[in-house]
Structure formats: structure tokens, C-alpha cells
Design brief:
The structure is a homodimer. Chain A contains twelve helices and 17 strands. Chain A is α+β, with helices and mostly antiparallel strands. The first copy, chain A, has three domains: about 80 residues, Rossmann fold (3-Layer(aba) Sandwich); about 60 residues, ATP-grasp fold, A domain (Dna Ligase, domain 1, 2-Layer Sandwich); about 180 residues, ATP-grasp fold, B domain (D-amino Acid Aminotransferase, Chain A, domain 1, 2-Layer Sandwich), CATH 3.30.470.20. In chain A, the strands form three sheets. In chain A, strands 9, 10, 11, 12, 13, 14, 15, 16 and 17 form a nine-stranded antiparallel beta sheet that branches. In chain A, strands 3-2-1-4 form a four-stranded parallel beta sheet, sandwiched between helices. In chain A, strands 5-8-6-7 form a four-stranded antiparallel beta sheet, with helices on both faces. In chain A, helix 1 packs across helix 10. The radius of gyration of chain A is 20 Å and the shape is globular. At the A-B interface, strand 16 of A face strand 16 of B.
């Protein structure tokens, strides 16, 4: 029975822990929040990130450490890495955690990305806005997810306001990309450098939050280009584990939107929809086990359950629907669960998504066939 | 968050608990054994079956109770059922727990079964042996599984020995059936009487223990007959939950070997190989949720890991192999885990089973295509 230490006890840690049990792996998590979603499936230590005693307990007897979120104090990450081998390596997180550093890193690799400005003061901010031209997105360099910590700026007055509200910890400015669609490439890399990719993922946002993700029906067109991007990032970081690269597709060009050094919401369909899930493959990779097959198992999609849960009786009456409750109290704009829909093929998947839409569940336009 | 109370904390409870978490269901188990397999995935109460305080704690706040084994003191079952609704109903267990009662019940239903004798003393035992003719199987009426508590008897001396060793709690004598193969039909029935069947299962024993189970490639031939048997049993028992009927096939005739009022080893492939697993469907049924689809997802098989675990590095390098560690200390003739092998079709499944055989894992003859 191996123990894996995880920084963070949210739903990603919960699903890592659930994937671990059949493999004979127990997860132990550290999270400052009371009653985190990993409760009940992992050993939970409730303490501050920087509590040295808590890091000792987290590391005790663990064979490897990992993380389920990137917004962590680097001192906690280094503190844990000093106690037990950490995968991905802390240096990878250090390159990606700060948006400005991540943009510089991607530029050094020569990867296409939206035009950006990385201002360090108000004057550079004004010049950045002027150089890029409105509209732009202003994002804090640290923290922020699900559209928090970012503003879409279309007027000079909004630019002023965004600086006032967000600039305390630094910001990046990104030119708004008129993309055709948003994609994600999910990869897993082993300690020996073996790398595997799941089929390219189509992602659909509603109000700045991921609403639906599925293997892209025409993903083969951009699969090789997306794999090349993810491979270059993973290799440059000497990455071990699952990594997700979010992309904008503009015609046949792929621009890097964001890199997440962890298992990712856009890959939750892999639990039922792929031979080996992102959660199991992350554990396999960090433990030095052979990587599992990333092949599809029929058609599938996931829908995030945001704010409140629908009626299980209605939803579970639809064949091929899998319920994932994260055990989190309902709250507006909070991801509290997801549904996976599996089907024999795209047609049957469309039909099942249609049944969910009939129940009042948000299915983004464009996610189903016309 | 609903709580389900389970009598028994073995691997079946472990897999019920793992299926429960995504549904927002927590399992609480009672088991007299220290460190039972449900540890780490369910709330575990370690106490005697008849400990009233333990039954109170087991039932507290639970919405429904169930069981993961049939060899339980009926006083414990009734004690729990007095505290919280129990599914399947205790009366179903009462009909099936004792082999002699089960044989009488099956005879009353008019179901075909091996010729049996139900002796109540030494004289009736001798007459039973004489009437049936050797060879026979002598089984204890209570307890016993995986060939424990039973003897194959081919000589009068063995008949004498079997009586001495097994008769204390009563025995049944069954004529040895020259079957073509062993099958299992797995069903789930809801409280409203809805019933669903997984495709007929082919089971392969080695040394009296289940070694391999898989959806039967030609199962459609006997599917309707098997469903009819399982339906009649489930309806007569007013059964709610998953039930498994083990069958002997002799030509086109199906004889009932044994009925298990619970999730069953022969259905473990349903975790990866069916749209909804036996574990999830048992929870759905006992909680009054809609039943999940029992449709196949490609080809699959499970292999029991008995005594010791193989090398995970070698096994997990084979695509489509899923590891299930029960967290039990290795011991000869003890089921300590299983492997599920998934594949696109029967040919690929054969190939993958061949890879496992090459690693020294027991694949029974006849389980793969010639």
C-alpha cells in the first residue's frame, strides 16, 4: 500500500484518491479548508500550507508528492519537495504559476500565443494597452480561475478600472483573440520521458467557466500540432504527470491560452470515456508505473454542474449518464460536480445531451451537431 | 449526502463504497475483522455482528441498509432491519442463506436444479447418497464459499468422512452435474419491480474458486432462459438490489447451482465493461434511483488475483488492464484483488489475455478462443 501526498484536497484530489484505491494507493492531502472534497476518500490534514508540522505529517511514509492546484505558496511546494520527491518538479510549477513568467516561458519556446504585454508599472500598463489596442483581457499574474481575477476591457475607462482593481500583485494584458474554438490537449509524461496524449478536447465556456468538454469529433485535424506544443512544454519543464494545455484555434493555427500543471477539468470525461483516466495515469506516471492507454472508449462528454445539482432521478434515468458529486456545498458559480455522458457514437451522444438540455441543464450552443 | 449502512466490510463493500462516492453516497460498514478492505473508503465500525451499540451506530442517519455477504447471523440482519429499511429484505436472505432452504425454495418455484438430497440425520444421509449415486458433492447447509465447506465424494469411504467432517450444522447432497459450462446471470431489481439484466456471464473455476468471468460471447443463446430464472427468483423474494444466479448449462438446459443475494464476483467486469456497474446499480436500486444501463462497453473479462499479487509494472504495461487491489494481506487461496481486461472486441481481448498468460497469470483453458 503506497501513500501519495497531495497539496490540495479539492475535487481533483478527490478523483485522484478514488483512482488510487483500486491501484492499492492511498492519498493523503493537505488543505486549509474544512471539509474539503477529499474528505472520506483520502486522509485529510486540515492546516495552513506553511505549517511545518503539517508538511511533516503529509510527507510521512509517502513515496511521492504531487499537487492538484497551481495557486500554492512556493514555500509550501519547496517545503514538501524537501521531505519527499515531488512530481511534477517544483521548478515546473515555478515557471507556470505566475502568468507573466508563463508567457515568457512560452515565448522562449517559440510557441504561438496571443499578443501580450507584461507591464511592471502604470506607465507600462498604459503603453501595453495602447500597443495591443482594445479590446484586451487584463489578468492578475497570480491566482484567479474560472474568470475570477480577470477583466475584459473594451474602453479606456474600463482599462483604468482594471488597473485599480487588479494591479496590486501585477497583471498581464492579452489581446482578445477572435478564435474559432477553444481546445485543450491533455498529456501524461513519465519519469523516463515516455509521453502519451488523449485525443484533442473541445471545450465550451459559459460566463467564463468551463461548461462542457468532449473529445473533439474532428480533433485529428489538429492533433499532431497540439501534441507538438504539449510535448515541447512538457519536455522543457522535465515534467512528470498529467499536464493540460488550453488552446485557441484560429483557422489552422493553435495559440497557447494557458498551461495547467495538473489534472484538468477538461479531461474529466477520461474517467469513463478513455481506457485509462487522467487521474489513474497521473498516479501511474508519478509512481513510475507504465502509462495506461489513452484510447477512447466510444463517444463521451462532460458537463459541469455549477452552483446547484439537478434532480438525480431525472438525470440518472438517461442511459449512459454518470454522476459525479464533489461533496461541496452549493454556491453560485461554484463547480460542485459534473456529469459524464457516454454513448456508442456521436449521434447517440447528441441525443443524450438533448435529453439533458430538455431537463434544463445548460448545454452550450455548438457543443452538439447542428 | 446519503449514508448507506452495510453488513460486512470486505471487497464487495469496498467496491460499493467506491461506486457510492461519485453519487454523493457515503457507506458505513460493520465488520468484526480488523482492517477490513472497506477501510479508507467507508466509515468502518469494527465490532461483533450482534453488538447492539454497533448496530445503533451503523444505522444512525442511514437512509437504507444492505449487505455484502449472505453468511450473517439472521439476528444481526433483523436487528439492523428494525433500525433502518433493509434492501434486499431480510426475508429474502432467510430463504437463501441455508442451502437446504434455498434448494426447497428453488424446487417450489419449479426451477431446474441438480438432483439433491436434504438429509436431517445419518440414516437419511446414507439413503441420500444411495439414491443419488456417486459421485456427489456434500456441502454444509450454512457458510462455506470458494469450495470451503464442501467435499467431492466419489467413494463410500469419502462419503463417511464427509459426514464426519461436515454434518455438525447439517449438509445437503448434490448429484455431480456433467455440465458443458458454468454461467451466471446478474440482475438488478428496483423497489417498483423494474428489473434489468447484464449479458449472461461465462465463469471459469480453478480448484473450486472463480478464476475468470466474462460476458459470454454466445450468451444470447441462453439469455432469455437465464433472465426468466432470475426474474422468477427475484420476484418471488420481492427482491431489491443486485442478485446473482449461478447456473450449470447442460446442452440447452440451465440448472440453478446457487443464488447469491448480493453483488457478485462474477460481475466485477461490469465496473469497466458495462455502462453501469453492479455496484452502482445496487446502490441505485436500494436508494430508489433509476436503474442504470446494463449494456456492454466493448469486450471485457476479469481475472481473480488469488494468494499473491503479480508485478504491477508487467501487468499494467498491457493496454486495457485495470488493477483492483482489495488491500488484503496475501494468503494462499485468498482473493486479494482482480484484473479487468477491456478490449474493442473478442479478438483483442484474447490477445490481451494471452499477454497475461505469458506473465504466468492463470487463464483457465477454454476461456479464450481456440
Amino acid at each position: 500500500m503506497s501513500t501519495v501526498a497531495i497539496l490540495g484536497g479539492g475535487q481533483l484530489a478527490r478523483m485522484l484518491a478514488l483512482a488510487g484505491h483500486p491501484l492499492g494507493i492511498r492519498c493523503r492531502v493537505l488543505d486549509p479548508a474544512q471539509d474539503c472534497p477529499a474528505q472520506g476518500v483520502a486522509e485529510v490534514i486540515t492546516a495552513d500550507w506553511l505549517d511545518a508540522g503539517a508538511l511533516d505529517r503529509l510527507a510521512e511514509g509517502a513515496v511521492v508528492a504531487t499537487l492538484e492546484r497551481e495557486h500554492l505558496p512556493m514555500r509550501a511546494v519547496h517545503g514538501l519537495a524537501a521531505r519527499v520527491p515531488m512530481r511534477p518538479p517544483p521548478a515546473a510549477l515555478e515557471q507556470l504559476q505566475n502568468r507573466a513568467d508563463q508567457r515568457r516561458f512560452l515565448a522562449q519556446l517559440g510557441l504561438a500565443q496571443p499578443a501580450v504585454a507584461l507591464p511592471t508599472n502604470a506607465e507600462e500598463y498604459q503603453r501595453g494597452i495602447a500597443d495591443l489596442g482594445l479590446p484586451v483581457i487584463v489578468k492578475t499574474t497570480l491566482g484567479g480561475f474560472d474568470a475570477r481575477g480577470q477583466r475584459r476591457v473594451t474602453t479606456p475607462a474600463q482599462a483604468e478600472l482594471a488597473w485599480t482593481e487588479l494591479s496590486a500583485g501585477g497583471v498581464v494584458i492579452e489581446r482578445l483573440v477572435p478564435f474559432d474554438e477553444e481546445l485543450a490537449v491533455l498529456a501524461v509524461r513519465s519519469g523516463s520521458g515516455q509521453i502519451a496524449f488523449w485525443p484533442l478536447i473541445s471545450t465550451h465556456q459559459v460566463d467564463g467557466m468551463l461548461a462542457l468538454a468532449m473529445p473533439h469529433p474532428q480533433g485529428y485535424r489538429w492533433q499532431a500540432a497540439a501534441e507538438d506544443i504539449a510535448r515541447r512544454i512538457a519536455e522543457a519543464l522535465e515534467y512528470v504527470g498529467v499536464i493540460c494545455v488550453e488552446l485557441f484555434r484560429v483557422g489552422d493555427q493553435l495559440l497557447v491560452n494557458e498551461v495547467a500543471p495538473r489534472v484538468h477539468n477538461s479531461g474529466h470525461w477520461t474517467i469513463e470515456g478513455a481506457a485509462c483516466s487522467q487521474f489513474e495515469n497521473h498516479l501511474r506516471a508519478i509512481l513510475g508505473l507504465p502509462l495506461g492507454s489513452t484510447a477512447l472508449r466510444g463517444a463521451s462528454a462532460i458537463i459541469n454542474l455549477i452552483g446547484t445539482l439537478p434532480s438525480p432521478s431525472a438525470v440518472l434515468a438517461i442511459p449512459g449518464v454518470h454522476w459525479h458529486d464533489y461533496g461541496k456545498p452549493p454556491r453560485p458559480r461554484r463547480k460542485i460536480g459534473h456529469l459524464t455522458i457516454t454513448a456508442a457514437d456521436a449521434l447517440q451522444l447528441d441525443e443524450r445531451l438533448g435529453c439533458l438540455r430538455d431537463l434544463g441543464i445548460t448545454i452550450p450552443d455548438g457543443a452538439t451537431s447542428p
